[in-house]
Amino acid sequence: MDLRVVIGKRVLNNPVCVASGTFGYGSEYEKLIDLTNIGAIFTKAVTLNPRPGNEPPRIIETPCGLLNAIGLANVGIQRFLKEKMIFLKSLGCAVIPNVAGSTEHEYKEVVKILESSDSVFGYEINISCPNVKKGALAFGTDPVMVESLTGNLRKITEKPLIVKLTPNVTDISIIAKAAENGGADAVSCINTLIGMVIDIKKRKPVLANGTGGLSGPAIRPIGVAMTYKVSRAVSIPVIGIGGIICAEDALQYLLAGASAIQVGTGTFIDPAIPGKTLDGIKDYCIKEQIECIKDFHKYIK
Ligand SMILES: Cc1cc2nc3c(=O)[nH]c(=O)nc-3n(C[C@H](O)[C@H](O)[C@H](O)COP(=O)(O)O)c2cc1C
Fold it and tell me: What's the count of helices (H) and strands (E) in the chain, helices before strands?
């Protein structure tokens, strides 16, 4: 059975990855699960300078989901390279930093600095964080900016460039196409949806940021539909994300047109979900006599 996934000039061993921001820098899960089974770790977003993130409360549970407004809290690129990459590169799986910024210059600087590390498989460009005042989502909702940013990052690296799409737009396929035109090797589909929870006693939003990004099983049908739409609009691989907590969920994404998937909020419920999902995909392939992960694409037109 061929589970490999080609992204740009490189290959992932299997299609089951873990999503940015829900898996820290890998070491948090080291004692809990076998990390070598993971297709790729998409790290917490990294920016040029350290960021404390938003004021608490910055996370709240919702029906079948989670609303977060972390605000890209991270250690900054220098500490990421010196401290976090040391552990990450000792793992047997691909490491894909999630790169964020407030300006095009910041995205470019982060990628340039990361180019010094052989252990970086590629980059996930986060143009879709709904929880920061400057940058991120402003890039991700404007196709002209998406194409320009992707094109300028393309000039810096030959490694896989994966652009992470926001669902908070009218037509996600236009943004996906802009990323492809800029030279992206793949797109990640989707980041969180903007939501709000109000405390009726205090008569104010629960999250200090006001709004947050909704994730978890509540958004799965949206992620599947957007993966279906995007995978028909572009010819580069689509990495499906949103509400995956078991193999059956991942299989929906693969049948919709995804080449790989990421488990995000699911790992908060059970850190073993990525491993169990991979086992379930293998069992399904054996039972259904599917020999190659790419064959999933032929079933739904
Ligand atoms: C607590 C939390 C932090 C996140 N941080 C990031 C981040 O730093 N960069 C990013 O691109 N996505 C981030 N995300 C979005 C996830 O990577 C993923 O796209 C989203 O949660 C949908 O997948 P899920 O329903 O499986 O969680 C975060 C999500 C959560 C719940």
Answer: 10, 16
> What is the whole-number distance in angstroms between the Cα of residue 22 and the centre of ligand 1?
6
Q: Could you tell me the distance, in angstroms and rounded to a whole number, from the CA of residue 287 to the centre of ligand 1?
A: 32
Residue 129 designated active-site: yes
- Gap between the Cα atoms of 248 and 240, Å rounded: 13
Whole-model pTM: value is 0.97
Which residue ranges in the chain fall short of pLDDT 50? Answer: none
Structure tokens at 199: 């405390």
Give the pLDDT confidence score for residue 45 in this predicted structure: 95
The DSSP result for 83-142, as a single string, is IIHHHHTTSSSEEEEEE--SSHHHHHHHHHHHTT-TTB--EEEE---TT-SSSTHHHHT-
Amino acid identity, residue 73? A
Distances in whole angstroms, Cα of residue 67 to Cα of each of 35, 57, 101, 196, 246? 26, 11, 22, 8, 21
Residue 209 DSSP code: T
Question: How would you classify residue 2: left for phi > 0, otherwise alpha for psi between -120 and 50, otherwise beta?
Answer: beta
Q: Which of 41, 165, 187, 192 to mutate to test the pocket of ligand 1 (most atoms within 8 A of CB)?
A: 192
244 CA: nearest ligand 1 atom:
26
Q: Whose CA is nearest to atom 31 of ligand 1?
A: 265
Whole-number percent of the chain with pLDDT over 90: 87
